[in-house]
Amino acid sequence: xxxxxxxxxxxxxxxxxxxxxxxxxxxxxxxxxxxxxIFGILGPNGSGKTTTVESLQGLRTIDGGEVSVLGFxxxxxxxxxxxxxxSQLQESALPDRVKVWEALDLFGSLSDQGPPVSELxxxxxxxxxxxxxxxxxxxxxxxxxxVALALxxxxxxxxxDEMTTGLDPASRRVAWxxxxxxxxxxxxxxxVTHFMDEAEALCDRLVVxxxxxxxxxxxxxxxxxxxxxxxxxxxxxxxxxxxxxxxVPHVTGITFERNRYEVHGTGPVLAHVASALLxxxxxxVDLRQERATLEEVFLNLTSEGxxxx
Length: 309
Hints:
Blueprint: E1 9-20, E2 23-34, E3 38-42, H1 49-56, E4 64-69, H2 78-82, E5 85-88, H3 100-108, H4 117-123, H5 139-150, E6 157-161, H6 169-184, E7 188-192, H7 196-202, E8 205-210, E9 213-218, H8 220-227, E10 231-236, E11 251-257, E12 260-265, H9 269-279, E13 288-291, H10 294-301, H11 304-308
């Protein structure tokens, strides 16, 4: 049996299956989301991300498995779920002529709970734009309003599906700050995104989907450590042979061309390499550590060969 409404986890998904006629969108997906965290769902187009999120919100009837959202089954208790969640789906938008306060008032009228419009306007920096029309707002201001609309019912859990798609860099940063503020208020956030820098910056934990199954899950740092191919330490040395670094603890290999060195390793390799260089009276000014990004890890995890294996 899945947890009841007083469960510790905000979401429990076990062996979720969803098909559309002959197309299997989600084959076997299992994960959990803890209360009060930002949880990312990543995957290439067609991986089952949006279908999974829509199933969690009771917008899709699942074909197999079990789902619990805040202790309720979205398939049979969709009303209870929707009263407790907020959502911004893909390509969320409003009519250009609707005023900011009108949109908040309309959405708020659908709920018997949540803060007043004036409080939402103040909280999300929209008080001065109260009477402005949606079409006249900047990208960042529109994003603030869409986030405020997702929070009109004071949800315990909020879903954002590709919320920063189409935004300029400045507006994306505004959106990131909004997501952090939502979590700071005690609300659990589920973030669906194909921007790896966004996931790495925001998510406490995440799951990677591909072809309707879970490829892996963990914190961004864990995934980078597990699948990123270790750490690279780079530096230049003129007139010195540093091949002896291959025997330094945590070093797994070393390559060099003329005066440019690249040391490969795991764990605190930078500290050991730096210490060894200093012991030999060497202090390269460009000594630096590099590691794989979440984007590189994501591409490796969802590449054709690894996905099939």
